[in-house]
Design a protein that fits this description.
alpha/beta; seven-stranded mixed sheet; 27% helix; 6 helices; Nuclear Transport Factor 2, Chain: A
């Protein structure tokens, strides 16, 4: 989902419609309840793999890139989701979707994010896809019908890279995975919410903030080594270009 700077000034000015290449609900049709076997089962609730940083940077620039990485990945993990947002009996609140995210955005991007949230809560499917990239708040509808309570979630970041772009900006790419589990008929049912993100970040005093972002979203059963029942769904990612 690409959110270019010229589109962030206002949603009403977008001329290109969202082009979905997968259906969110299609990835949630198969339930899985399997014995934990993967590396992620022993990871803490928050985990970040070290990134690959561009070799062209000198020592000072590398230190700067590492600081940007640490700040932004911490922010991404903080906002990945929360239990209240996964509970179908607790409607998502505007403040919960806005304030934690916009504190690490430029003013222009924060303004656009607010517009996406407003449209999302008004029922705009395209806007919801955008909001779910950074603040996931939509447990699959099939689970809603079964009225299962969220019991846990944890998130980790892998496959990260940092490279300089124009000016003082850096481009950060990484995969943010949130594993959320619920209990149904005494079995643990889990889904991996996979978000492949690309963020353009710029300095703001001693902080780094997001100036632009895009990404892909996919929901599937967790990968389990040696377990056929938990292979990911075969549907493609939910993506959109704006």
């Amino acid at each position: 989902m690409h959110v270019p700077l010229n589109a962030l000034a206002g949603r009403s000015g977008r001329s290109s419609a969202t082009r979905l290449t997968g259906v969110l609900l299609a990835a949630s049709l198969g339930l899985s309840a399997c014995t934990p076997q993967s590396r992620s089962e022993v990871l803490p609730e928050r985990y970040v793999d070290p990134p690959r940083i561009a070799e062209s940077l000198d020592d000072s620039e590398t230190e700067e890139a590492e600081e940007a990485w640490d700040q932004i990945t911490g922010w991404a993990l903080d906002n990945a989701t929360e239990e209240d947002l996964l509970d179908p009996d607790r409607p998502s609140r505007e403040e919960a979707l806005t304030t934690p995210v916009t504190e690490r955005m430029t003013p222009e991007t924060a303004e656009a994010w607010q517009e996406f949230v407003d449209a999302d809560l008004a029922g705009d499917r395209e806007a919801r896809d955008t909001v779910n990239l950074l603040r996931f708040h939509e447990w699959p509808a099939k689970f809603h019908a079964r009225r299962m309570e969220p019991v846990h979630h944890r998130s980790w970041i892998t496959a990260g890279t940092v490279r300089p772009v124009d000016g003082e900006a850096y481009e950060l790419r990484f995969t943010l995975v949130t594993r959320a589990g619920l209990t149904w008929e005494k079995s643990l049912v889990e889904r991996d919410i996979n978000r492949r993100l690309k963020l353009r970040v710029v300095p703001d005093g001693d902080r780094w903030v997001v100036e632009d972002f895009d990404g892909e979203l996919r929901i599937a059963p967790p990968r389990r080594t040696g377990s056929r029942c938990c292979d990911p769904a075969t549907t493609g990612p939910v993506t959109a270009d704006r």
